[in-house]
């Protein structure tokens, strides 16, 4: 049993979908999985295992930000033998043509965090990237569906939610970054370390420069499209 998940050996599947919000993890499990059973309530960061179209998989909340996501990702990969982790969450657009309700699939994750600076002792600007097989599957599935537009490219994992300036985001947008979230860079880095597969799929919940936001009542339905893409990709 790990410190922060506390599941018994064998209770977690080799494939995990990882939303930040533990209540969203509960919603995904109850909505999409058959026979879902809760394996963890430690710190109310819920985890569930069930089946989707005959495939065994788990849903694990990660909390917000790279420190929290790193704890759960590390324990999943190091202590439970997880081989595939797909983050399903929200992001803020910083591009004019990436709109609220759109889906973004992250090829790579730039970051303003010092976590990888410390990890590589300041000697390497490590570039965390997604697993290509998962990326290709998710994009092909998304493009074959009737639904929100899908954008594929670089995302930014930020340590800051309420910042004092948007200058960094404006500069990132000039270099083609699509959207800002808070976990992908840590996920991609740890997956590389443990030779696992990782991908981040996000629904655009707000536009940072236009001050647009997805109404709360629409989030569940819109996020469901993203989850279905993720589930199809990991069971393909």
Describe this structure in words.
The protein is of the alpha/beta class and 236 residues long. The protein has a single domain (15-234), classed as Nucleoside phosphorylase domain (Rossmann fold, 3-Layer(aba) Sandwich). It has helices at 22-32, 66-79, 115-119, 132-144, 167-174, 184-193, 216-234, and strands spanning 15-18, 34-40, 47-52, 55-60, 84-93, 103-111, 150-157, 179-181, 197-207, 212-213. A five-stranded mixed beta barrel has the order 5-8-7-6-9, surrounded by four helices. A hairpin with a 4-residue loop joins strand 9 (197-207) and strand 10. It is globular and about 45 Å long.
CATH architecture: 3-Layer(aba) Sandwich
Helix content: 25-40%
Gyration radius from CA atoms, angstroms: 17 Å
CATH superfamily: Nucleoside phosphorylase domain
What is the first-to-last residue Cα distance?
30 Å
Number of helices: 7
- Principal-axis shape equals globular
Summed over residues and divided by their number, the pLDDT gives a mean of 96
Instruction: Tell me the count of domains.
Output: 1
Low-confidence stretches: none
Strand order of the largest sheet: 5-8-7-6-9
CATH secondary-structure class: Alpha Beta
Major pleated sheet:
5 strands, mixed, barrel
CATH topology description: Rossmann fold
Strand content: 25-35%
**Structure classification:** alpha/beta
What's the total number of strands? 10
Order of helices and strands: EHEEEHEEHHEHEHEEH
